[in-house]
């Protein structure tokens, strides 16, 4: 056992493997428009929190993706652009599925899952800078 955190080396390596794999997929997502980036970074942050907290903090402070990761981990917030992309992607995928005529049970099941996922994404709060006051809490306090 690792005396510093009470976790065995095997388990720590497993969390690091999951984290590194997720970062690899996120890196690919930065160049491939169909592959998302931030969800994989969120998985990496979750795994790094268990396997190597220093890597998690390094990721949270990344100049390009750190803000989105922090907003999600701290507040569950999703930016408007990401919400539009997520719901648009689900809608496009459903349209392609419907055109391929898989049958009503498949369409109904897939549609229910996508509607639930879209409702969850849309219901998440906006990051502070995406809010109505542009992230300036002082304006909200004055009213």
Main beta-sheet annotation: none
Helix percent reads over 70%
Structural class: mainly alpha
Residue-averaged pLDDT, rounded?
Answer: 84
User: Stretches where pLDDT falls below 50 for ≥5 residues?
Assistant: 133-143
User: What is the tally of beta strands?
Assistant: 0
Question: If helices are DSSP runs of H or I spanning 4 or more residues, what is the number of helices?
Answer: 7
What does this entry look like structurally?
The chain contains 7 helices and no strands. It has helices spanning 9-31, 38-51, 53-60, 66-75, 80-99, 104-123, 137-142. The radius of gyration is 19 Å and the shape is globular. The longest helix is centred in the first third of the chain and has 23 residues, at 9-31. It is mainly alpha-helical. Helix 1 (9-31) packs antiparallel against helix 2 (38-51), helix 2 (38-51) runs antiparallel to helix 3 (53-60) and helix 5 packs antiparallel against helix 6.
What structural keywords apply?
143 residues; globular; disordered C terminus; 7 helices
TL;DR?
The protein is built from 7 helices and no strands. It is mainly alpha-helical.
Q: What does the secondary structure layout of this molecule look like, with pairings?
A:
Layout: H1 9-31, H2 38-51, H3 53-60, H4 66-75, H5 80-99, H6 104-123, H7 137-142
Helix pairs in contact: 1-2, 2-3, 2-4, 5-6
């Amino acid at each position: 056992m690792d005396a510093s955190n009470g976790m065995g080396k095997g388990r720590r390596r497993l969390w690091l493997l999951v984290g590194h794999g997720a970062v690899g997929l996120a890196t690919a997502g930065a160049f491939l428009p169909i592959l998302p980036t931030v969800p994989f970074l969120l998985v990496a942050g979750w795994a790094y929190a268990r396997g190597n907290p220093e890597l998690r903090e390094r990721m949270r402070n990344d100049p390009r993706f750190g803000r989105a990761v922090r907003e999600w981990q701290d507040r569950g917030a999703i930016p408007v652009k990401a919400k539009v992309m997520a719901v648009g992607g689900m809608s496009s995928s459903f349209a392609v599925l419907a055109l391929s005529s898989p049958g009503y049970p498949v369409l109904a099941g897939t549609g229910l899952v996508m509607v639930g996922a879209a409702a969850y994404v849309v219901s998440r709060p906006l990051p502070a800078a995406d809010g109505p006051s542009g992230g300036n809490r002082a304006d909200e306090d004055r009213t």
